[in-house]
Amino acid sequence: MKQKMITLILSLIVILIMQGCKKDYLNRPPLDSPTAGTFYQSNADILNGTGPLYNGSWGGYNGTSLQYIGDVLGGNSLADNYNGRGAYLSFSVTSTDGSGALQSAYVALWSVVANANVVAYNIRNAAPGASQAARKSGLAECYFMRAAAYYFLALDWGAVPIIYDNSLQLGDASIKRNNLQDAWQFMINDLTWAKNNLAASPAQPGRITKWSAEGMLARAYLVRAGLGGSGRKQSDLDSAKFYAGDVCNNSGLSLLPNYYDLFTSVKFSGNVTPQECLFGLLWVPSGQWFVQNHMQANLAYDSKITQTGDGWGGSFGASPSLLKYYMDPANKADSIRRKATIFLPGVSYPDINASNGGWHVDTTLFNNAKIYAPATTGSFYGNDHAFVKKYVIGSPADNGGLGGQQNENISTYIFRLADVYLLYADAILGNSASTSDPEALKYYNAVRTRAGISAKTSISYADIFQEKKIEFAFEGHAWYDWKQWYYFDPANALNYFNTQNRGAYNISYNKGNPFVTYLDDTNNPQSIGERHYSITSNNTDLPYPESDLLVAPILSAPPVPFDFSKVTY
Q: CA 212, 144, 57, 68: dihedral to nearest 10 degrees?
């Protein structure tokens, strides 16, 4: 009993100290009490303690931040300028970002780090009733989550502070941003420990496994291989190839046969996830606000789809570059992913409004439709574009009665097996201009053939990058995949965005056939052409939120090396 009280008091002290700290990357107490102040007496207690790391901790990143940074900034989604969100389209995000996405992402990701550290502290101080295996597995979940958060933090902000123990570091006045290389090494260390201590099968449905950690480890090595801006380091490419290959060839996991089914609640709802989801956020369709999935509320273009009063996504849709891919006759066969990804006029979607025969997108909305004004004005004129379908799953009636307003009954996929397939091919390609390696082609083509499109006999980096763009559209990947490219080939990566059409367009109909007019919205919103925005090496990292710079001005100081001897596992 005495030991229990000591552990309880120490846990509470950690939280109280965290709440009083002015460093935002420490001031993130767990969002629901079970991770703090709870005495872990058994294996079940540890399992319950790590549960909130799959939802509430990520709540502020899911939805708006994932969408604006991952897809609008990444060039897969268009947007107007409501609350300044057009800045993500034009590479002009500032520290005072009016959309709130910058601050929300920053807060949420540091919440994941802080919560993972607190849960790890509680596990290390668990009662003797908890087995060593359960402790190691719980700690592995914590370190995996910490590494996952750092993946986004490092790719968004570059050099960031490495926070490994909230209680020890709170009194450390010397905390500064650490070198970017060190951040990636920290992730690799966390994921290595996780893959050594996670089982091959999930402890509960939807939980991470050894294969999740190995896949993420491969991705971390692949990204780090490019740091330096002149090709990719072969030893890191070899490590990425090794771990990705182990997942591909030895996990026994496979892609879901039907891509469309990934994004329907009929197949996968709540905490039920397909085996190809190596890491997903597990939302509670009847839980509290911060453990609900509000993605659909942001993306559905019509409240008649949700039947819950929300559905504010009319300002979003396929970017010109994404739409151009799907409108190209050469890509006509890629209809499975197209239908799962975007709403196109004249197409029916059977999983929405299912009891009435499905949802049919009316082409009359697109005839003589008005268009978006320039991103700088923020005005919205009409429904003229391909809206977002992915993560739009319909009303509670379409989902077994589950869900509700800003409460979607489906997980958010952060890392899928298809990602490992493509990064395996990428690691095999390495610094070569192209490859016909059988292993690379086997897994690259597995992604394509699942989508119903033809296999290739030789692939380049451009092929892999394009496949990621299409496969993961509206899953928050595009910006991060581009950043990986920028690390090792900055000139071509910058040119990709600088020449990318990021303007408006208008879908019209002629005798039942759609055609697209691309528009230069610089001065005249109806002038035909393209709109390009400039990105340079000066704005490839997001700015720190102003509120955080005010309380932690040291974030503006140059980064320093990290002392890895301080971290114990």
A: -60
Last residue of a domain, one of 173, 198, 223: 198
- Find out whether 416 and 211 touch, Cβ atoms under 8 Å: no
Predicted confidence at residue 267, as pLDDT, reads: 66
pTM over 0.85: yes
pLDDT of residue 39: 63
Q: Which two tokens stand for residue 240?
A: 């990425």
Q: How far apart are CA 343 and CA 322, in angstroms?
A: 13
Question: Are 171 and 44 within one domain?
Answer: yes
At residue 507, the pLDDT reads 82
> In 10 A of CB 67, how many CB atoms?
28
Collapsing DSSP to helix, strand or coil, 409 comes out as coil
Q: Are 365 and 510 members of one domain?
A: yes
SS3 content of the chain, % helix, strand, coil (to 5): 50, 10, 45
Tokens of 507: 């879908």
- Domain termination site, one of 198, 221, 245: 198
Q: Between 132-157 and 101-124, two packed helices, what is the crossing angle to 10 degrees? A: 160
d(CA 235, CA 285): 44
Tokens of 554: 């040291």
Please check whether residue 147 is in contact with residue 141, taking contact to mean a CB–CB distance below 8 angstroms. no
User: In the prediction, which pLDDT does 344 show?
Assistant: 87
Per-residue buried b or exposed e for 110-138, using 16+ beta carbons within 10 Å of the residue's own CB: bbbbbbbbbbbbbbeebeeebeeebbbbb
Residue ranges of the chain whose pLDDT lies below 70: 1-39, 171, 173, 266-272, 286-287, 363-383, 509-514, 521-526
Report yes or no: 237 and 208 within 8 Å, Cβ to Cβ.
no
> Does residue 214 lie within any of the structural domains?
no
Q: What phi and psi, each to the nearest 5 degrees, are found at residue 99?
A: -75, -20
Q: Which residues pair with 560 in a beta bridge?
A: 178
Please name the amino acid found at residue 429: L
Could you tell me if residue 490 is inside a domain?
no
Residue 332 belongs to what domain range? 294-409+503-528
- DSSP of 153-190: HHHHHSS----S-HHHHTT-TT---B-HHHHHHHHHHH
Rounded Cα–Cα distance for residues 246 and 417 (Å): 12
Distance, CA of 21 to CA of 434 (rounded, Å)? 51
Q: CA 347 → CA 288, 340, 432, distances in Å?
A: 35, 11, 41
Is residue 27 situated within a structural domain? yes
What does the alpha-carbon distance between residue 214 and residue 205 come to, in Å, rounded to a whole number? 18
Going from the C-alpha of 369 to that of each of 14, 201, 327, 451, the distances in angstroms are 57, 51, 19, 31
Q: Which residues contact 440 (CB under 8 A, 6 or more apart)?
A: 424, 425, 428, 429, 459
CATH classification at residue 127: 1.25.40.390
Q: Tell whether 28 and 155 lie within a shared domain.
A: yes
- The residue whose two tokens read 């090496």 is 537
Decide: 142 and 157 in contact? Cβ < 8 Å.
no
In a domain, 18, yes or no: yes
Pick the closest to residue 252 from 276, 218, 273, 271 (CA basis).
276
Number of domains comprising the chain: 2
Biggest CA–CA distance in the chain, Å, is 80
pLDDT of residue 512: 60
Q: Residues in the chain, how many?
A: 569
